[in-house]
Structures are given as structure tokens and as C-alpha cells.
């Protein structure tokens, strides 16, 4: 892996966002925010929520939808400290992705490096969002699960991820996969013991936040109900709530990644079924993780977040697309287009989430 590639991955989106700061923002209130021009492109959309939580805590119900890790980092390190951490983690994640995909038998070569460098979620990996941090925790966990080692570090990674994003609960699926298929072999008892850990590490911090906010003891089951109600009331999250004609452009924005997720699952199942007997591998587990997230977002969440949820949770689509035939190179244009538009629109406070 060339140092130039790593430098481009870290510096390019940062420079683009700084240049975008010279453009007038789309919202007048944003223009009058008092921020310096070089700070404005990094404080759009959800960053405002993270900054408000960092400064004032969980003082409204709406803020309870956000997990505390990033606000803590913003409070301790400041805006530019978090941006620097994200740039470093982007480089770390490039290395982790190539290592993990190599363990899964995916060799994308230069195509993989291109995919990771021109990631469609570049802007969210650079701005103070959770993408880079969650990707690091998720990929370290998956890599160690594949290797079958350092269970204490696996628990640490799911713990950090549980403070960062609610989709941490899906990491429990890897232990379930081991229980069902004994893949990797000989680890069923350990997997049975660790199966509830990612779920508990996500729900307990949520329970504590809700108990503090409502000034009463909130049970685990009640915390799940309250969190779902908050997501539904303020963020329009719930089964089928986003399936409206006015949201068609958002579904179209997510459609390439829906298609690639479905196609990659189909191809992986075909590959397995061609063998003499059905032999699920860790590679299938990562593919199923990607597909489960796709189904969740399309069915219940704001579908425009699908891109960043998928690409920051596993490197599966990076690996799958990098091994496509030379005739099937549309994904490269999609990557460059999403990365470029993302930096431009996000930096100008135009819709790109």
C-alpha cells in the first residue's frame, strides 16, 4: 500500500471541504452562525446535534436519539481534534479493510485501493460524524472474530461501538452465526457466552441516558420502547413510515447500494452452493451483516442514510465491487460522484445525508 494513497485518503476530502467553505452556505441562519469560513463546512446537519450535546448534554428528547461517544470526543478534543482523529482513522480503516477482506479471500488489488480511497461516504468519514469511529470498532471486531482470538478486545470494540451507534446490536449476529454453523470451528461455547454482549453494551448506556433524562428508573425493555417512540416522533423512523412518494428521490439515491447488496448476496450463495456440500464461511457472515443492515434501513429508517450505514459497518461492498469484471465498472463513477457531491452539498448545508 503506497504512502501516497494513504495521504490522498486522509487529505483530499479535508481540502475539498475547506475549499467549499469559501462558497456561501445555502441557509441564511447558517451564514450568520459566527463560525469562521474554514469551520462552517464541518458543522452541517447532524454535527450541530453532536455539538449541542457536547456543550449542553441531553436536555431534550430529540437529543436522546444520538449516542454519546462522539459528543464526548467533541467535548474533550474540540472540533478540529475530532476531525484530525477521523482523518487518522480513515487511514487505519483502509489498512483494516484490506486485512479483513484478505482473510475473507477477497483480493481486489488496485481496484480495492481505489474503492477505499474514493469512498462514497468520504465526507462523513472526515466531518465530525460517527462513521470513521464506528468503522474502526466494527472492523477490528470482525477481523478478530474471523481469527478467533483476543475476545477481550472484541468485547472492548463492541463496548465502544455501543456508545457510538445503535446498529452495534447486529455484531451479535457473528456469534449467532458461529452457533448455527460452527464457523469458525470449535468456538460455540465462547460464542454462546458472548452472544448477548453487543446487545447489552448498546442497551445499558441507552437505559442510563433515558433514566437520567426522565429522572426515574427506566427498565431495559421500556428503554427500547421509549427510544423507538423518540425515533418515530422526531425522526420519522418506523416500519414503512418512509415509504411515501415524496421520498422517491431518496430511494433512488440509495438504489445502487440496494442492488449491489442483493446481487452480492446472490453471488455469494451461488458460490457456496457450487461446492460439494453447504459450507458457510465467515465471508457469508459479513455478507449477511451487510444485507441485514440494508433491510433494516430500507424498511424502517431514513433511507438516505443507507450509504453511510453500509460502508461504515463492513468492507463487504468495497470488496465485492473491486472484484467485478472490467465490463462492470459503473460503480467507479458512482463512488467518485457520491464522494464529490457529498463534499460539495454537505459543505454548503444542502441535503446530503
TrEMBL record:
<feature type="transmembrane region" description="Helical">
    <location>
        <begin position="151"/>
        <end position="177"/>
    </location>
</feature>
<dbReference type="GO" id="GO:0006506">
    <property type="term" value="P:GPI anchor biosynthetic process"/>
</dbReference>
<dbReference type="InterPro" id="IPR007315">
    <property type="entry name" value="PIG-V/Gpi18"/>
</dbReference>
<comment type="pathway">
    <text>Glycolipid biosynthesis; glycosylphosphatidylinositol-anchor biosynthesis.</text>
</comment>
<feature type="transmembrane region" description="Helical">
    <location>
        <begin position="73"/>
        <end position="92"/>
    </location>
</feature>
<dbReference type="GO" id="GO:0005789">
    <property type="term" value="C:endoplasmic reticulum membrane"/>
</dbReference>
<keyword id="KW-0337">GPI-anchor biosynthesis</keyword>
<keyword id="KW-0328">Glycosyltransferase</keyword>
<dbReference type="GO" id="GO:0000009">
    <property type="term" value="F:alpha-1,6-mannosyltransferase activity"/>
</dbReference>
<keyword id="KW-1133">Transmembrane helix</keyword>
<keyword id="KW-0812">Transmembrane</keyword>
<comment type="similarity">
    <text>Belongs to the PIGV family.</text>
</comment>
<protein>
    <recommendedName>
        <fullName>GPI mannosyltransferase 2</fullName>
        <ecNumber>2.4.1.-</ecNumber>
    </recommendedName>
</protein>
<comment type="function">
    <text>Mannosyltransferase involved in glycosylphosphatidylinositol-anchor biosynthesis.</text>
</comment>
<dbReference type="GO" id="GO:0031501">
    <property type="term" value="C:mannosyltransferase complex"/>
</dbReference>
<keyword id="KW-0256">Endoplasmic reticulum</keyword>
<feature type="signal peptide">
    <location>
        <begin position="1"/>
        <end position="28"/>
    </location>
</feature>
<feature type="transmembrane region" description="Helical">
    <location>
        <begin position="112"/>
        <end position="145"/>
    </location>
</feature>
<keyword id="KW-0472">Membrane</keyword>
<feature type="transmembrane region" description="Helical">
    <location>
        <begin position="331"/>
        <end position="352"/>
    </location>
</feature>
<keyword id="KW-0808">Transferase</keyword>
<keyword id="KW-0732">Signal</keyword>
<dbReference type="GO" id="GO:0004376">
    <property type="term" value="F:GPI mannosyltransferase activity"/>
</dbReference>
<dbReference type="Pfam" id="PF04188">
    <property type="entry name" value="Mannosyl_trans2"/>
</dbReference>
Amino acid at each position: 500500500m503506497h504512502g501516497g494513497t494513504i495521504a490522498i485518503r486522509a487529505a483530499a476530502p479535508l481540502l475539498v471541504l475547506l475549499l467549499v467553505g469559501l462558497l456561501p452556505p445555502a441557509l441564511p441562519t447558517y451564514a450568520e452562525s459566527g463560525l469562521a469560513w474554514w469551520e462552517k463546512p464541518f458543522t452541517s446537519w447532524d454535527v450541530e446535534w453532536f455539538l449541542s450535546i457536547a456543550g449542553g448534554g441531553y436536555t431534550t428528547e430529540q437529543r436522546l436519539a444520538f449516542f454519546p461517544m462522539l459528543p464526548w470526543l467533541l467535548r474533550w478534543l474540540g472540533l478540529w481534534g475530532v476531525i484530525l482523529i477521523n482523518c487518522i482513522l480513515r487511514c487505519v480503516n483502509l489498512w483494516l479493510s484490506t486485512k479483513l477482506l484478505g482473510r475473507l479471500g477477497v483480493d481486489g488489488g488496485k481496484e480495492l485501493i481505489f474503492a477505499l480511497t474514493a469512498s462514497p461516504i468520504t465526507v462523513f468519514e472526515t466531518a465530525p460524524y460517527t462513521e470513521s469511529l464506528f468503522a474502526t470498532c466494527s472492523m477490528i471486531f470482525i477481523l478478530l472474530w474471523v481469527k478467533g482470538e483476543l475476545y477481550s478486545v472484541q468485547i472492548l470494540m463492541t463496548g465502544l461501538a455501543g456508545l457510538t451507534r445503535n446498529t452495534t446490536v447486529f455484531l451479535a449476529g457473528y456469534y449467532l452465526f458461529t452457533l448455527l454453523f460452527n464457523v469458525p470451528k470449535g468456538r460455540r461455547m465462547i460464542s454462546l457466552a458472548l452472544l448477548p454482549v453487543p446487545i447489552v453494551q448498546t442497551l445499558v448506556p441507552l437505559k442510563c441516558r433515558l433514566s437520567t433524562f426522565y429522572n426515574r428508573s427506566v427498565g431495559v425493555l421500556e428503554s427500547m420502547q421509549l427510544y423507538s417512540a423518540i425515533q418515530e416522533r422526531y425522526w420519522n423512523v418506523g416500519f414503512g413510515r418512509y415509504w411515501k412518494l415524496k421520498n422517491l428521490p431518496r430511494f433512488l439515491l440509495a438504489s445502487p447500494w440496494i442492488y449491489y447488496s442483493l446481487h452480492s448476496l446472490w453471488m455469494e450463495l451461488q458460490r457456496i452452493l457450487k461446492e460439494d456440500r453447504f459450507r458457510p464461511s465467515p465471508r457469508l457472515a459479513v455478507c449477511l451483516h451487510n444485507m441485514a443492515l440494508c433491510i433494516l434501513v430500507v424498511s424502517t429508517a431514513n433511507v438516505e442514510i443507507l450509504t453511510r450505514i453500509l460502508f461504515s459497518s463492513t468492507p463487504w461492498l468495497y470488496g465485492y465491487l473491486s472484484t467485478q469484471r472490467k465490463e462492470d465498472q459503473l460503480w467507479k463513477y458512482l463512488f467518485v460522484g457520491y464522494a464529490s457531491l457529498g463534499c460539495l452539498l454537505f459543505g454548503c448545508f444542502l441535503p446530503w445525508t
